[in-house]
Amino acid sequence: MNIYPMAVIRGCRVALHLIYGALLALCYPHLDRARQLRMLRKWSKQLLGILNIRIGADCHLQPSGCLMVANHVSWLDIFVLNTIQPAHFIAKAEVRGWPLIGWLCKRSGTIFVERTLRRDAAKVNQSAATLLRQGACVGLFPEGTTTDGSRVGHFHSALVQSAIDAEVMLCPVALRYLDAEGKPATAAAFTGDTSLALSLLRVLCCRQINVSVAFPPALPAANGNRRMLARMAQESIAHSLQTSPPRLQPEPVPSAAIPLLSTQSAYVLLLDPVINQLAR
Q: Which segments cross the bilayer (predicted)?
C-alpha cells in the first residue's frame, strides 16, 4: 500500500469534514425532519466526494417509512446509503465508543444494539418500529458483521420484526464496491482484525472507488414471518450481486455562483454552513 501525497490531502480534508460534522451535530437534533434529512444527505455526499467514491444506483427507495436491509461490506455503507436515502441506522454498540464518529452517530439518531443481549433486541425493535410508524426510514445490516463483498452472509432475523410490527415495506439493498476498472475494490472491505484507522488509510490511498447500489423488489412485511422475510431479502440481494452493476450517475455540474462558499473549498468558514443550515 503506497501512501501518495493525495492521500495526505484527503486525510486532512476528512479531518476538517469531521469537525464540520461535529458543528452540524450540535444543532442537528433540534431541526425538523426535513432539514435533518437534507443535512445528512449533503454531509454524506460531501464525504464520499472527498474520498473520490462514486455511486451507481439502479433506482431509488420509496421516500419514507421503510426498513432497509443491506449486505455489509464497509463502514462506508452508511454514508453511501445516506446519500441515497437518509435513515436511522441500527449499529452494534461498539460503534458508540469510536472517537468522534460514535458521538456523531448518536447525535444523528443511530440506534445502538448490544447483540449479545437478547432482551436488547426487543427494545431496539420497539424503537425502530416507532420511527417507522412516524414515516422515517431505518437501516439494518442483518448479517451482523462485514464481508469482503464477494458473498452475502446469513441474515439474522430478530430485528426484522420492527418492519412487521410497523407494517411497512422491507427494502433489500445490494452493495458492491468496485475499482476504476470494474474489479472488486478490496480496499473498501472492513473485515477481520482491521482497525478503523487502517481501513480509512486504505480508502485514502485508493485513487477511486465505485459503489454499485441495487434495489431488488421491496417485500411487504405486514403479518409476515421474520425468518422468511430475512431469507427472501438475503436471496434477492445475493442474486442482485451476480448481475451487472448499474452505471455510475453523472456528476452534477456545480453552480458557478457559489463555489467560494462551498463546504468543500472553504472549511475556514466552518460556522457559516451551520448558520446557513439553520436559516433554511
A: none
- Reduced to 3 states (helix: H, G, I; strand: E, B; else coil), residue 40 is helix
Is 9 contained in some domain?
yes
Asked if residues 170 and 136 have their Cβ atoms less than 8 Å apart, the reply is: no
pLDDT digits (tens, 9 = 90+) for 108-167: 889 998 876 677 888 999 999 999 999 999 999 999 889 988 889 999 999 999 999 999
Apex CA 215: angle with CA 211 and CA 217, to 5°?
165
Q: Does 215 fall in a domain?
A: yes
CATH number for the domain spanning 62: value is 3.40.1010.10
CB–CB of 67/171 below 8 Å? yes
Instruction: Confirm whether 25 is domain-assigned.
Output: yes
252 assigned to some structural domain:
no
Q: CA nearest 214: which of 264, 134, 266, 149?
A: 149
Full domain range(s) for residue 243 = 5-247+263-279
